[in-house]
Amino acid sequence: MSGHDHAHGPVAGSPGRGDGHGHSHGSVSASGRFTVPLAITFGLTAAFFVVELVVGLASGSLALIADAGHMATDVVALGASLVATRVAARPDGSGRWTYGRYRAEVFAAGLTVLLMLGVGVIVVWEAIDRTSGGGSGDGGVHVTPLPMVVVGLIGLAVNAVGLIMLRAGAKESLNLRGAYLEVLGDAAGSVGVLLAAALIAITGSSVWDLVAAIVIGVFVLYRAIGLGRSVLRVLGQQTPEGLKPEQVAGDLHAVRGVQQVHDLHLWELTSGMTVATAHLVTAPGVDAHVVLDAARDVLADRYGIAHATLQVEPSDHTACGELGW
């Protein structure tokens, strides 16, 4: 992530106020660098969704239909992620988006969570309904394993390509992490379909199709809850994972010339873009520019914080009281 820094404030020993601000602005979100892999994954997933849905309806396999439903959420979620990366990268000509449009990626991940929850509930409900509706315990639907094997293998290949495409970006972006988890869930679904087909062929009972559908649905719900927590953490402006405010404050306090640190705030604008603000109280005669540069370097080098706003206050400056939040 590239950036630039600027600071302003009086030199040491000058009269009046001794405050200043140090800024570092990230220019490109993490997911913006992975637009092409995301687009390829979207295209492959959309094509396979059509195939799986048609075969699932023709064969009567609830496991295939469940996995196709999961694929449908992938198509929408990947499409939303792709749009979000483009929106986040658009320059702001109005001057109203002072932090840029990066939060669009977080909202896309939130949409993914809602879709995953919906699909998971529907699939589990339908499987239970079929189980209770048939005297044999398989819903009275006979499922042929061969179509499940063919579609499962194709799906696994498509998912493998998607996982390879999105793996690197998933480590940096919540938006891409949501897309990656969707594809990972599809891969697990394809494995479930293959296992169900094998068990149906061995036992002759279609109940394994319903079991696979329930497992797929529960797995989708489990992943949706985990991703949802990450989305809420960002939207709730909680301290990013791996950062401890008291440790950051301690390192800033250790900067030469700093007597006190207060009003420290740490949050994520979007994945990979941590924002920080803090007030630094300095000893008399300290050069504010030197303090700003040193504090900026601490945040950037030790914590990877590329956008920090720092206000330097001399120890005899009493007008700035601590905020109440």
Automatic annotation (TrEMBL):
Residues 245-314 form the Cation efflux protein cytoplasmic domain. Residues 1-26 are annotated as: Disordered. GO terms for cellular component: plasma membrane. It is a multi-pass membrane protein. Residues 40-235 form the Cation efflux protein transmembrane domain. Keywords: Ion transport, Membrane, Transmembrane, Transmembrane helix, Transport. Its main location: membrane. Belongs to the cation diffusion facilitator (CDF) transporter (TC 2.A.4) family. SLC30A subfamily. This is Cation transporter.
